[in-house]
Known about the structure:
This protein is mainly β and about 120 residues long. The chain is built from no helices and eleven strands. A hairpin with an 8-residue loop joins strand 5 (about 45-50) and strand 6 (about 60).
Amino acid sequence: QRDLVESGGGLVQPGGSLRLSCVGSGLALDYYGIAWFRQVPGKAREAVSCISKSNRDTTMENREARFTISRDSAKNTVYLQMNSLQPEGTGIYSCAGDRKGEQGCYPASWYDYWGQGTQVTVSS
C-alpha cells in the first residue's frame, strides 16, 4: 500500500515553531513532488510549501514567509519547518505527492497521494 504519513502537529503559542514530517510508506519520496497543504473550516485546501522531485534541479516554493520545506532522502521524509507561527496558521496540514514531480505548487487535484493530515493549533 502506498501512503503518506504526517506527524508533528500540536498546540503552539503565537510566535512558536513546529516541524512537521511527511514519511513515505511504499513511496520513495525522492521521485515525487511533495506539497504541504493547509485546510481551515469553510475554505479550500491551500498549498503552503512545495518541493520538486529530487534531482540536481530540485526547487522549493515557500508561500509563507516563515515556512521552509526540505527533504531528507536517507529518511524518506519531507519536512515543513514553521517559525513565528500566528493564529492564522491554525489548520489541518496534509502532505501530498505527485508523480510528475515538477517545480512549483499546484491545485489539490494535481496530486496523486495524500496523507491523513495533522492538526496545528496556534493559540495562547
